Amino acid sequence: MLDTLCPMHLILRSDGLIVHAGPTLRKVFPQATGKSAHFFDHFTVKRPKSVTTIANLNDRRGAKLHLAYRDDPNSDLKAVAVPMADSSGTVVINMSFGISILDAVRAHTLTNADFAATDLAIEMLYLIEAKSAAMDASRRLNLKLQGARIAAEEQAFTDTLTGLKNRRALDHVLSRLVAAKAGFAVMQIDLDYFKAVNDTLGHPAGDHVLQAVAQIMVEETRAADTIARVGGDEFTLILRDVEDTQTLRQIGTRLIDRLEKPILFQGEPCRISASIGTVWIRENQSAVAHDVLSRADQALYHSKNAGRAQQTIFDAECGSANPSANRKNDNLV
Predict the structure, then answer these.
(1) CA–CA gap between residue 168 and residue 155 (Å, rounded)
(2) DSSP code of residue 256
(3) Contact between 63 and 80 (Cβ < 8 Å)
(4) pLDDT number for residue 323
(5) pLDDT tens profile 78-114
(6) pLDDT for 298-332, tens place per residue?
(7) Cβ contacts of residue 259 below 8 Å, gap of 6+?
């Protein structure tokens, strides 16, 4: 009867020997429920700590006990001890796993057959598993949605042909730098003779040239810089933490030199060059994003009117643009 109603029970003699154990306890603690096993050799009463004998168990009849299996000190079993009514000193202890039931079920491969038919433990396990499955599904969905959102945002800020940033991304970065009064430089770059490539070799050649140009710009700048394709053959670079105009001259020269080298498309050389207009904004200098781009455009027009394949640097403090004699490093003063 007890095996059916209380599959996690023990029957103890007055001397503490275990004379019978329920089927679930025999499955979970085979060493502790064998022949001639002594209760206090295998179990300890964690609370109340005063319970160390069968007599103490009799004194705590009907009270809730906290037990631990000695071979697993971290175990936490709940129990109730009730003396038999025949005055023989025999004690019946009924146990449960309490909140550790999930770990016990997994560790000992327990099923609903290991619990009393009226025990709600299995129903609780089903609810826990269902909740866990629902939370896992929710997490997976959230990760998927987050990934889709990031991908959509990235796509919205990316030029599909070159993989560079687009005008929207450029405006976003420039607005943040202006608001923070950070030091930076803007280079407006226009490809010279690009239309001739499209006209003579076709748009596939033009696309190939644009992709090659994008790769050159990536190689000649830092990871923290922003490179954007803002038009058909128009590019804008935002260079952070620029210390002087000499650095800008060097970057512009390297770009022009590399872009003047023929780019091969199906064995045919595509010849282009680059005109650059640059404006340098010092740290803590007040600026307006639209004005910064307008000044860079003004410097770019100077480069084109001066013969192309050169850089013009706008002097933001003087507000003027007068090219110097150096063909590839025009400095506005």
Answers:
(1) 11
(2) H
(3) yes
(4) 44
(5) 889 888 877 677 889 898 887 777 777 777 787 777 8
(6) 999 999 998 889 999 997 544 555 443 344 554 44
(7) 191, 213, 216, 272, 273, 274
Q: Where are the beta strands (DSSP E) in the chain?
A: 9-12, 18-21, 43-47, 64-69, 72-83, 91-96, 184-192, 226-229, 234-240, 263-265, 268-270, 273-281, 311-314, 330-331
Q: Two tokens at 185?
A: 């430089």
Please report the beta strands in 13-161, taking only residues with DSSP state E, as ranges in sequence order: 18-21, 43-47, 64-69, 72-83, 91-96
Q: What pTM value is reported for the model?
A: 0.56
CB atoms within 10 A of CB 198: 17
Residue with tokens 């003047």: 260
* Residue 223 and residue 231 in contact, taking contact as beta carbons nearer than 8 Å: no
Residue from 114, 190, 233, 297 carrying the catalytic annotation: 233
Please state, in angstroms and rounded to a whole number, the distance separating the CA atoms of residues 320 and 313. Answer: 10
Sites in the chain below the pLDDT cut of 50: 317-318, 322-327, 330-333
- Whether 114 is catalytic: no
Residue type, 297: D
CATH topology of domain 2-119: Beta-Lactamase (3.30.450)
> Contact 193/286 with Cβ under 8 angstroms?
no
Buried b (16+ CB within 10 A) or exposed e, 302-325: bbbebebbbbbbbbbeeeebebee
CA atoms of 212 and 216, how far apart (whole Å): 6
Q: 278 pairs with which residues across the strands? A: 187, 313
The identity of residue 326, as a single letter, is N
Give the integer Cα–Cα distance in Å for 68 and 70. Answer: 6
- The CATH architecture that domain 167-331 belongs to is 2-Layer Sandwich (3.30)
Task: Please give the structure tokens belonging to residue 94.
Answer: 């009924």
User: Which of these, 70, 69, 63, 38, lies nearest to 48 by C-alpha position?
Assistant: 63
Token readout for 292 is: 């910064």
Domain ranges in the chain? Answer: 2-119, 129-156, 167-331
